[in-house]
Amino acid sequence: MLKPEITAITGPAGPLETIYLPAQGTACGVAVVNHPNPLQGGTNTNKVIQTAAKALTGLGFHCYLPNLRGVGNSGGEHDYGKGETDDCICVIDYARAQHPELEKFVLAGFSF
Questions:
Q1: How close are the terminal C-alpha atoms of the chain, in Å?
Q2: 30 contacts: CB under 8 Å, gap ≥ 6
Q3: 29 beta partners
Q4: Rounded CA separation 35/8 (Å)
Q5: 80-106 pLDDT, tens per residue?
Q6: 24-34 pLDDT tens trace
């Protein structure tokens, strides 16, 4: 697996600390993998999120793993899903803009 890059994506409540993992081999798509509930310790370094991203990069997807608002070094405060949805849309738009030639898209996440 290639070395992850940490980037800050501009979100509606401030920067969104995001791990970028490039596809292994020939890229075929883009994936955004979201962390579980931060009130229960969910972050973008969660082992389930990391495992999903590792599998997706192996399948040729560029992966973006954001810390949504109020988590890690991301701006804002937890908003019980409303603001986090807006954050996720910003990350999707950013990720797709970075790789406009790739049509395939995966949105993933899980809940505790």
A1: 27
A2: 61, 62, 63, 64, 95, 96, 98, 99, 102, 104, 105, 106
A3: 61, 104
A4: 16
A5: 999 999 999 999 999 999 999 999 999
A6: 999 999 999 99
Type of residue at 18 = T
Helices of type H across the chain? 47-58, 82-98
At 98, which amino acid appears? Q
Backbone angles phi, psi at 26, to 5 degrees: -75, 125
Residue with tokens 């405060």: 77
pTM, two decimals, is 0.96
Look up the CATH architecture of domain 5-109: 3-Layer(aba) Sandwich (3.40)
